Structure formats: C-alpha cells, structure tokens
Amino acid sequence: ALKKEALAWIVRLTSGEATTNDRDGLMRWRAKSPTHEEAFREATRLWRNIGPALSPYADTPRGVLSRRSFLAGGATAMASTAVVSLGLSQLGILPTLEAMMSDYATAVGEQKTVQLPDGSTVTLDGGTTLSVDFSEETRQVVLTAGAAVFDIVEQRRPFVVTAKAGTSTARRATVSVKHGVDDVSVDCLDGTVDVECLGTAALHTGEGIIYSATGLGEKLGSDVETTAAWRNGLLIFRNRPLADVVSDVNRHRRGKVMIARASLKSRRVSGVFHLDRPEEILAHLENTLDVRPISLVGGVVILR
Hints:
By secondary structure, the protein is of the alpha+beta class. It has helices at 2-13, 20-30, 34-54, 67-90, 97-101, 242-252, 278-289, and strands at 104-105, 112-115, 121-124, 129-134, 139-145, 147-152, 159-163, 166-170, 173-179, 183-196, 200-204, 207-212, 215-216, 220-221, 234-241, 256-259, 268-274, 293-295, 300-303.
C-alpha cells in the first residue's frame, strides 16, 4: 500500500500540475516513518526506469519544439507546450526527484556550504545534488548534478568523488568538480587529486582536466582565482560550448533556457557574467552568436 501511495506522489509531482503544497505534502508523508521513506526511494528507482516510457510526451524529445508547433498554434501554443512538458521541477519551482533522493541538494540559484561526517566541507552551487556514503575504508560521494568545491581533510581513507563516468580521488585537497552537458571538469585548487576515466591523470595545484564518456582530455592550466567563480557571484566562460553555458545559466535562473537548433550547441562562448544578472548573459549571446531569444511564460526562453 505504501509503494502505491509513493508512486501516486511521484506521478503527481511529475504531472506538470504539482504545486508547492504538493511538495510540502510529500515531505510530510515521507517523514511519517522510515518505511514511508524507503517506499518513496523504491518508487523513485522504479519511476526512473519506466517513467519516461509512460510520459505523454515520450514521442517528442523533451525541450524540442517542432516546426509544426510554431506554425499551428503560434506563440501561445508554443509556450504552453514548453511549460507543460518541462514541468515545475525543471523550471526550478519544485525540487526534482533527484534532489529529493540526495543527501544534499540546492535549489536553482541557491548556494550553500555543508560539513561532511569526516570534517571535510563541500560548497554546492545552484541546482546541485550530492549523495554521501562513508565507510570504514573509503569516503565516497556522488555528484549527480551541478557543481561543487570539496575541501577535503586529510585521512587514511581516500575521498572519492564520482561524477558521470569518472572518479576523482584525494586524501587531502581542494577540488572543484562541475557537470557539463556531455562532460565533467575537475580542477585541483590545492593539493593533489587523481582523476580516472578510461585512464588516470594526476592533478596538482593549478591543474585541471575534462573527461567524458570517451575518456580523459588533456591536462590544462587552471586559474585558481577564477575556477568555481560562482562562489564569488560570477560565471566565467573561456571558449566553452553554448550548451554548457546554457546548462550553467539554468542552474542559476528560474525558468528554462532551451536551444532550438542543434547547430547552436557547439558554438563557443567566452565572457565574465554576474549571477544576479542572468538576463545580461542572454543579451550577450544574442549579440555575439547571432541567436534570437524567444521569451515565453514561466521564464522559458528559446534560443533559435
């Protein structure tokens, strides 16, 4: 019975019609007992496997609006399609299931620093989710989304950060780890960290690397002063793909910026921007990349 109730909550929260009252109601339901919480976690694991197949938008790639949508219904239909298909969690209004399943999470535009059980600290950027699993032998954390800076205290147990297809291991270091759309960037701000992804690279202070499903990239120099500049209220991009820039913007701005043309995603962007003025980033993209932003309801912006 509890599993059915948990699935009912998930269906409600992913329906596109959920409210903040629904979110609060779910949190109260989960807090009733450990059995309620476990039922929710099991239902979430099930939903991750079968949920996309049950979605009424399963035949249409999420975040993609067809030419027919533009021609048939005009701006109003386009706006409603985008907002309904995204849902409130993707617009930054309600937490995602991933956030509710994680040990630590930040909302869109939120940053916070937490102390981990071993005394290490982690600073989470907006839209970030982190799970922790410490044992007598290892200190394991999984960064499932977003960006974080880990200030790792020295212990005999290795501290392992898993993000997508790779791991970053250290015993004492300060390390920045950030999700891109298709890759993960790791920067060593202090100490030494070993990065593994179809190969291994040792990073020392001032060095960084990017890895993806195809393996490690080349080691690069990393500017300690500007790496993870979001901690100082800035976003700094140096020749990064537009897709990654949009991903970062979406972690700091409620609503959703989407790229309508696949050819735009690989265009390169450089610049320094203030987190509290995200619209300036969109204006910069319009002026430098020859893109046209279309603003819709709910903070949705389509770049085309």
